[in-house]
Amino acid sequence: MVSVRQRRVAIVLVQSALIAFSAALAWLLRFDFAFPRPKFFLLALLPLLSLRLLALAYFDLFRDNWRSSGIRDAAEIAKAVLLGSAAFLVVDRWAAAPSFPVSVCCIEALLTAGALAGARMSARAFFEKAQQREGRIKARPLRAADLEALLGRKQVQFNLEPARQRIAGRAVMVTGAGGSIGSELCGQLLALAPSRLVCVDRAETPLFYLQQAHTGAEVETVYRVADIADRARMGGLIREYDVRVIFHAAAYKHVPLMEENLEEAVKNNVFGLLALLEVADEAGCEDFLLVSSDKAVRPTSFMGCTKRIGELIVASRPSARMRCLSVRFGNVLGSQGSVIPLFQRQIDSRRQITVAHPEASRYCMTGAEAVALVLQAFAIGSRGDILVLDMGKPVSILGMARTLIHLSGIAQEKVKIVFGGLRPGEKLAEELFYDFEQRSATGAGKVLRAQSRVTAWPELHDRLRALEVECAAGAPAGIRAQVKQIVPQYQWVASDSTGGMPAARPGERPRSGVSAAPHGVSGRMADREKISCP
What we know:
534 residues, single chain, nine-stranded mixed beta sheet, 18 helices, two-stranded parallel sheet, 15 strands, alpha/beta, 49% helix
């Protein structure tokens, strides 16, 4: 198998040959296919080639994404050629005897741009033809360039030195370590030199693969299968490994599935969190960070409600020594169970993508961005903070589907896009803040602080106990009603079988005391009685 480095070397060599060929052809065209002063040409070719390659590197054009090349790559090539030409003209004019006439430089720039873009387009056409012959596409892993195309922006790079200063030399635990965020978090933490990294997950297979990925790590790593709701087990692990910092990423996250499993959602996302906080505090842990979600804002899903309750617990629960904070962010592209892998499977198996609604959008980021921002928030956050990560503009799900078709190398008209309606609990668009939350800047440019009145812990504690009673009774309507007491902004529509099915009308924010069925779904949901919890 060809390695990434070998592919990069091949791309550099191919582009170097194209540049050299374009320069020679420009010289021939300028002098009517004669080749005067070959010595001057050869002397000038080395600086020209060097400057061209530097410009290509600056615009990140050594990526091996030629099979998905498009307009954006052509624009980047044009910029790189202009920059390289300008730099070469300056260098050449400063020489004692300029080698290239300006006319040759102009012809060479046009030929080089055409050759570089043409090579990419030819490669894409070749791969498309090959895939059409196979009658299928590969559900290959998304590369950095693919993710940037889906986001519509370049990935943001972050300075993690402040996080290193808080992490270095301390024992760190990550719960949900085998998940998409947890595994990426573990990888970045290893680079920050903790004294020990304790990776905890209830699922053994993802934890096994994580352990294999960390083979050869210089930091001591520990992998433990455990349930965060098991107080004795978690307390024992924290004490045994002298854990000082906990990143809590273990949670149920699938919105429609949690609508049908209310008790488990509460047990894991709410009472599992509370149990872990208490045993961590008792064991002398010093820092605790909860990974939350933008679905916690004005939730229409039960999962979003559990995330909001988690934020409230972390913000209001008193602790004499442990700094507790939450970080809220949106969808992570390519994560387990997310829309991108689902779209890839649909393209591969059926040549069809199902999108909820043509106007649906989500805040999106890559796993690397999400974790880097979590670490920045950890470095600058204060006790009780809810920190919100700036993810730029929401990304259109429909636009993302079309981009993914393009990246797959299949013609757009050969993949059908259908609209299936919002699923139970889904919104047309997510939000990052409540109206009553004040946004303030922090020391990190991409991290904002959400400030509002915190629920008093005795009041929240009593309501949590009441929620625990409802969960023990196993009555869905009672569970939802009690959750509504804790999160008044929660909206839901009653159902005979599930005790309530969340919904949101496209383009309309949920209103207190009013629920609405999503546009584009079957009439039986729209006909349900609209109610709100008392």
